[in-house]
Design brief:
This protein has ten helices and twelve strands. The protein is α/β, with parallel strands linked by helices. The longest helix is centred in the first third of the chain and has 21 residues. It is elongated, with a radius of gyration of 21 Å.
Length: about 300
């Protein structure tokens, strides 16, 4: 029996197999997204008396796994649809296009690939994240103070949008330096230390981290807790330590759990009811986390990672 026939049989029985592929199992963001997808499948199955199965195929990079191999496994397992946060490389691009050509419905989350039109893309509003970070840092700074912005040496489109949002929120004159690093903890800390050493006139009064690389280990900044207002976009679990110890004033985070929940709902609506989303682009709003709501946010992570 062909793959298409298997799919038709499952459709008649109300049985659907959905694969979800994050970028790396080491990143807790994808654990939250996966749980959102699994919870959505459970609710849909219970409500509509159908069987929706979510299979997780996020690669473990430490074992040499890749998104391309995950896509191949899902093709072998005859998935009806795939939800993926696609890495921006040619191999992933080719694997996604091949899956589409075989009739699999594709939903992107977090980011999307140029040149491929998915069923839907559930993506972060990165520009708004930058605006929110810029507005927030101003609350902790004296008037006319200047900041440094940490970003990657080779920024992707999401980081560029965050930077654009920050600039529009605070203005170019409020930016003393844009400091670039490799996207990892050690490079980020080294770049921050070098920038502070070179700031001999003490013009840098605060920092915005366009991503959370400096938060991926223990606090190692060249200033004492509370001396430098800091805001970071994107969150990892170690960010809580930096807020608790007074090194970080606020986080701008995306709704990771909702990415998975919304993606599964959108996909099953198409597979089971033939309903396409009103718009192929679903943008999710960022959220500000600070000392006032950090406890509630911490509890969410505890639930997601149980």
């Amino acid at each position: 029996m062909t793959s298409s026939a298997f799919g038709q049989n499952r459709e008649l029985l109300g049985e659907y197999r959905i694969g979800i592929v994050g970028q790396d199992t080491e990143d807790s963001i994808y654990q939250a997204t996966q749980l959102g997808a699994i919870d959505a499948a459970y609710e849909i199955s219970k409500r509509n008396f159908i069987d929706v199965e979510v299979v997780v195929f996020t690669p473990d990079r430490t074992l040499g796994q890749s998104q391309e191999s995950s896509m191949g496994e899902l093709f072998i397992k005859d998935a009806d649809g795939i939800i993926i946060s696609p890495g921006n490389n040619l191999a992933t691009h080719s694997a996604v296009r091949f899956a589409q050509e075989q009739g699999q419905k594709i939903i992107f989350f977090e980011t999307k690939l140029e040149g491929i039109q998915p069923l839907a893309a559930v993506v972060a509003d990165e520009y708004r994240a930058g605006v929110l970070a810029g507005q927030t840092i101003q609350e902790y700074l004296p008037s006319r103070a200047r900041i440094a912005i940490l970003m990657a040496k080779d920024p992707d489109s999401a980081q560029k949008e965050r930077l654009r949002g920050i600039r529009n929120a605070i203005g170019y004159k409020a930016i003393e330096a844009i400091v670039q690093c490799e996207p990892n903890y050690f490079s980020a800390i080294e770049a921050i230390r070098n920038a502070e050493d070179e700031d001999r006139n003490d013009l840098i009064s605060g920092w915005i981290f366009i991503d959370d690389w400096p938060l991926l280990g223990m606090p190692a900044f060249p200033w004492k807790a509370g001396e430098r207002p800091c805001v970071a976009i994107q969150s990892s679990l170690t960010a809580f330590i930096h807020i608790d110890q007074g090194y970080l004033n606020a986080l701008v985070v995306h709704p990771y759990y909702e990415w998975g929940f919304t993606s599964v709902n959108t996909l099953v609506e198409c597979l089971h009811n033939g309903k396409f989303p009103d718009s192929p682009l679903i943008k999710t709003a960022p959220q500000l986390i600070d000392r006032f709501n950090i406890s509630a946010y911490r509890k969410k992570w505890q639930q997601w990672l149980q």
